[in-house]
Design goal:
5-stranded mixed β-barrel; disordered N terminus; alpha/beta; 2-enoyl-CoA Hydratase, Chain A, domain 1; 4 domains
């Protein structure tokens, strides 16, 4: 056919060659065709392209890079999916397969994933699985953007109405955000040849469908019970990627799971609101102990690291600073209860402030972006008990009067055996001590021991109010 050539792509590391039809001017097409035939003959590995349009021929085993996502769509999960697709492109895989189970997530993270799928050089399939999974909210856009959209039996898709996780949107802003999401959903559905009307209803009316209904209404391409059955079902299907049309060859393909790095796994755990909340409390404890006991070092290090990690997690969460201030106020009130006698008023205020601050810390209507009550209640109870019992016992022990040693004499009363002007002798518990008084004292007067300097007691006369309470 004039103007159509075969472009040969050889991947020596995987032992495969790909042949793709591309339109070029007649002369360039002729030269390129001769070059492709010569390369194919020299390698002896390229399969001839079929006559039914673009083809994805291969020699050797097909490769599918699989990534499993079963969390909310956050910057961490977005980076994981983008890296998985990039890995598939780098290895010239036949397919990048994303196993998806998500309640939704952040709009910015979702759009990052969608842009990567739409610009991918390898086909991307999104498979809502295993049974019982869902592709809700942001998961709807990701599923519809895929070259192949599939669902396992017993799964559902839908409910993509945008929600402002920070709250405070008026009707005008709500309308703008909704219309923007509708236009985005319809454009993705139109590009992939899927149901645009349903895409709009999923955003405006939060409608949802089961796997069977989604296939019937052209929301997804097919339903498949397992990954192997999915790969067999889409084998031979033609899809359009960034570089042109490709015929999938996935039957019996070798599936390799894409593993996230240790760094990303740690960041994913830290980004959990419950973990971030606990890290913040640990950080406050550590800083408090370091300030109370300068030079302890370890509490300060742990507290500083915990606070920094908590702040990292909070940057991707709708943090309410009033909640943070209430938590700090609650801890301060609990500390004051230990030092000041308030008959429980400071304790009640501190616990109330700590509880309200914890509830207000992350403001979001989405449950997976809020701190769970199952975490808040034990944390508040443990914090209150810790400061009232443990810290209180420590401070009381520090204030307790010494019962032995020179420190035990401080504040005790003695009787002047001789006049003190300023030196003389005093009797304390039957013992005679040399003493020095800050003011003249007559023999037989009661004095108070202020300081012990070796075998010399520094004393002061007892005031009349102290002797006659």
């Amino acid at each position: 056919m004039p103007g159509v050539i075969l472009r040969l792509r050889v991947d020596a590391s995987l032992g495969r060659a790909y042949i793709r039809r591309v339109r070029q001017p007649p002369l360039a097409a002729l030269l390129s065709s001769l070059l492709a035939v010569a390369l194919a003959a020299s390698t002896g590995r390229a399969d001839p392209a079929d006559s039914s349009g673009a083809s994805f021929g291969r020699v050797g085993e097909s490769l599918v890079v699989q990534a499993t996502v079963s969390d909310p769509i956050t910057p961490v999960s977005a980076r994981f999916i983008v890296q998985a697709i990039a890995e598939a492109e780098e290895r010239s895989a036949d397919l990048a397969l994303i196993l998806l189970d998500t309640p939704g997530g952040l709009d910015t993270s979702m759009r990052e994933i969608v842009k990567k799928i739409l610009s991918s050089e390898v086909p991307v399939a999104v498979y809502v699985a295993p049974p019982g999974s869902r592709a809700a909210s942001a998961g709807v856009f990701i599923t519809m953007a895929a070259h192949v959209a599939a669902m396992a039996p017993g799964t559902n898709i839908g409910a993509a109405h945008p929600v402002n996780i920070g709250g405070g949107m008026d009707s005008t802003m709500t309308g703008k955000v909704t219309n923007d999401a509708v236009a985005y959903a319809r454009s993705i559905a139109r590009k992939r040849g899927r149901n645009e009307e349903w895409a709009e209803d999923a955003v405006r009316r939060s409608v949802a469908l089961s796997s069977a209904d989604a296939v019937r209404d052209r929301v997804v391409d097919l339903a498949a019970p397992t990954v192997d059955s999915l790969l067999a079902a889409i084998d031979g299907r033609t899809v359009e990627v960034a570089g042109g049309e490709i015929v999938l060859r996935t039957r019996g393909a070798r599936v390799e799971e894409f593993r996230t790095t240790l760094r990303d796994r740690i960041l994913a755990v830290i980004s959990n609101p419950n973990v971030a909340y606990i890290l913040m409390l640990i950080g406050v404890y550590g800083i408090f102990f370091e300030l109370s006991n300068p030079g302890a070092i370890l509490p300060g290090i742990l507290g500083g690291i915990s606070l920094i990690l908590a702040f990292y997690a909070f940057q991707s969460l709708p943090l309410n600073y009033a909640g943070v201030l209430l938590i700090l106020l609650g801890i301060i009130l609990l500390i004051l209860e230990v030092k000041v006698t308030s008959h429980g008023i400071l304790s009640i205020g501190g616990i109330t402030s700590l509880l309200l601050g914890s509830l207000m810390l992350v403001r979001s209507p989405l449950p997976f972006l809020r701190v769970s009550l199952v975490v808040i209640v034990p944390a508040v109870a443990a914090t209150a008990a810790f400061f009232l019992l443990v810290v209180g016992a420590g401070i009381r022990a520090q204030r307790r009067r010494h019962t032995f040693g020179p420190e035990a004499l401080i504040g005790a009363r003695a009787v002047a055996s001789t006049p003190l002007d300023p030196r003389g002798q005093v009797t304390f518990q039957g013992e005679i001590w040399s003493a020095e008084s800050s003011a003249p004292v007559e023999s037989g007067a009661v004095v108070v021991i202020d300081e012990v300097d070796g075998l010399l007691l520094r004393v002061s006369p007892m005031k009349w109010e102290e002797t006659n309470p």
